[in-house]
Amino acid sequence: MQRPIGVTVTAILMAVNLFADIILSLTSPTVVPSTSLSNGPVFTPIVIAVHIALVGLLLGQCIVLLYYWFGRSWARWFVLAGCIFYITGLREIMARWRQHHSVPSVALTLGSAILAIYLLWYLHTRDVRDWFARSTVADVTNK
After folding, report:
1. Cβ neighbours for 35, distance < 8 A, ≥ 6 positions apart
2. Which domain holds residue 95?
3. 111 assigned to some structural domain
4. Are 80 and 54 in contact (CB under 8 A)?
5. Which residue blocks in 28-125 are alpha helix, DSSP H?
6. Is residue 37 part of a domain?
């Protein structure tokens, strides 16, 4: 069975969202505190550990996105869990907007919320569930 066009479109939108989030994170002011004795940020072990964890999370998202594209059922479940996680944290994100917001970050957050809501509906449609189930079963039987 051919991949549903919605899976292709949503995978591309998730990849664009991930790329835009990385770019906005790299271009935003640093969240690492500076000391009064130095001109640069303080790289304590906890700050380094947080950055390593974030890189690991980013790589995990890329792997899930790749397997979502290939139609693995477990990747579909990870995407659904990510959508629920994102929507439940949306209230916190909105609170941060009031403190300091930029137009690109607001647009990215709104786009991500719309995509998450759409994915929650779309990934529960019968055709999409069947395609993910067939892709996973076909992969197991071909080995």
Report:
1. 42
2. 5-137
3. yes
4. no
5. 45-70, 73-88, 90-99, 103-122
6. yes
Radius of gyration, CA atoms only, the chain: 18
Residue 115 belongs to a domain: yes
Q: pTM for the full model?
A: 0.77
Structure tokens at 52: 């390593």
Tokens of 7: 């899976």
The verdict on residue 81 lying in a domain is yes
Q: Please state, in angstroms and rounded to a whole number, the distance separating the CA atoms of residues 96 and 90.
A: 10
In the structure encoding, which two tokens stand for residue 127, read together?
Answer: 């055709």
Residues in the chain: 143
- Our count of domains for the chain comes to 1
Per-position pLDDT tens, the chain of length 143:
789 999 999 999 999 999 988 888 777 665 545 555 555 556 778 878 888 888 899 999 999 999 999 999 999 999 999 999 888 887 777 776 666 667 777 788 888 889 999 999 999 999 999 999 987 666 656 65
